[in-house]
Amino acid sequence: MDFELMASMMCADYGHLEQEIKELEAGGIDSFHIDIMDGRYVPNFAMSLNDMRYIARATSKPLDVHLMIEHPNNNIGLFLAKLRKGDTVYIHPEAEYHPSTTLQKIINADMIPGIAINPGTSVETVMEMLRIVKKVLVMSVNPGNAGQMYLPYVGKKITKLLSIKEDMDFEIYWDGACSADKILEFAPKGVRGFVLGTTLLFGKTQSYGETLQNIRDLRF
Fold first, then answer.
1. Would you place residue 144 in the very low, low, confident or very high pLDDT band (cuts 50, 70, 90)?
2. pTM score of the predicted model
């Protein structure tokens, strides 16, 4: 079964970041997930513009940039200038007065536009934006910190999104508390990719290559 695996780089060892990137690449990671937090939209700070720029220079793999910041339209140009064509940028619709304007700037920069949906955000409130974006990042935990517990009602939201994704032409990605059982359940249903953090990928005794291969070898 074909699905994408993204490394949540806020969970990486920043004392050996270049080595982490190389080992993840060698292990077969599909892309690098970059969480930018401003301490306002979410109650935490994580990763920076410079972290993102360093990873963009250190790898040819795609970047998957998740902007957890207030009013991203004010500073979106700073991020787009440091990324490559084909990278993905997600915004949170609640964080912007006119999110479609910000999404259009991402499209104009030849990057992939996406929205991130919090557990408390209903599909109905973002329905029109689903016709603009190419990716929907479904948060299975409240954004802001790694290592949180999965919120079960998010599964029903994913089911609703799966029923309309073909008509609206977007793909669904999972972010937060991603365990093997979640991949086993939702990959066959049509979830395209999974962001891997401390639950499955980082802080384990196995190499990244062994861990990633074990995930791809899951019995569906």
1. low
2. 0.95
